[in-house]
Structure formats: structure tokens, C-alpha cells
């Protein structure tokens, strides 16, 4: 079953299965370090919410604290939507190094690296658009600054540590607010076999 170029299947793809299998020894070792006896690696996922800038910084804060307490190393999957995906992009682009992520964000907002005048000029240029709002202003001036490097990065450039199992397997979710006609009555089978109405 395929939909708009996305393969829908109840099974893991070969690459995901290999990455998760490579992650299992790391998870077991990290659980044991935390005093939790484990012979097998449980599947543990952390999911970040949407919410733009708030979600981005909240997710980064959670990742930092999880890293500080040794909990990030027991995670199998790391998933996010919207603002949390920005945090995940920072996390994977910087190979999971939280100090680099923090330094990178600080660097982006240093006065010599950010032309407020240029940002305001571009904002004024698009302010005449019919649907322009304060949210658009905020997005351009602040959020585009904070995520500027992501536009040139690719998911494939983040995969080295994931394939080795040194970082959790990422899931970047996107939301399409337009419900396609062919999806309205679509039912899918969940992994446990019960039907879920979309």
C-alpha cells in the first residue's frame, strides 16, 4: 500500500531493523550502568511534541537532562513533530553532543552573526502579503535564525551514528493539515492487529 510517495507497511525496513539491532547492546549496557538488570534491550521511545520555539527548547532541555542522568543511552527511538524536530535536527547534526548544540545556538544569536536590520528589512518586504501575521514576523526574525543551517542538511548526513547504534533511531514526523479524499475512509492495521480509524 502506498500513499503520496510514502510506503506504508506494518514491518520495519531492513535499515531500521539493523540500526535498532545495533543499538540493543548500548541500551543493555546503559541500563546495567543505571543499576537496572537487563538481559535484553527493551524498546524505549521518547516523543517530543509540536509547538514551535517552545517545543524546540523544551525538547532540547529534556535531551540535556536525559544525557546528564545517563537516560539518553537507554533510548531506542527518538521522535518529534514540528518544533521538536528542530531539536532532533540539532541533536543528530551535532552527533548527539549536547555541548556543541548549546554552543551552536548561542553562536547563532551573537550580534556579529545576526543582522537584525537585514531580518527586519526582509520582514517588512513580506508584510504586505494578505495572510501576514505577528506569528510570521516571529518565525522569520527568530525561528529562521535559529534553524538556518537545517535547510542545507540532509537526513542521510545524520545516519552514521544511527546505523552504528550509538544514537537512538530518529523519527521525524510531519503533519499535513489537508485531509486527502482518498484517506477519509482509510483503515490501517496497527502492530497489535486492531483496526484504527483514521
Automatic annotation (TrEMBL):
GO cellular component, one term: cytosol
Catalyzed reaction equations: 1-hexadecanoyl-2-(5Z,8Z,11Z,14Z-eicosatetraenoyl)-sn-glycero-3-phosphocholine + H2O = 1-hexadecanoyl-sn-glycero-3-phosphocholine + (5Z,8Z,11Z,14Z)-eicosatetraenoate + H(+); a 1,2-diacyl-sn-glycero-3-phosphocholine + H2O = a 1-acyl-sn-glycero-3-phosphocholine + a fatty acid + H(+); 1-hexadecanoyl-sn-glycero-3-phosphocholine + H2O = sn-glycerol 3-phosphocholine + hexadecanoate + H(+)
Keyword Glycoprotein: no
Key word Lyase present: no
Domain of life: Eukaryota
InterPro entries assigned: Acyl_Trfase/lysoPLipase (IPR016035), LysoPLipase_cat_dom (IPR002642)
GO biological process: glycerophospholipid catabolic process
Domain PLA2c: 1-198
GO molecular function terms listed in the Swiss-Prot or TrEMBL record: calcium ion binding; calcium-dependent phospholipase A2 activity; calcium-dependent phospholipid binding
Keywords: Hydrolase, Lipid degradation, Lipid metabolism
Protein name as catalogued: PLA2c domain-containing protein
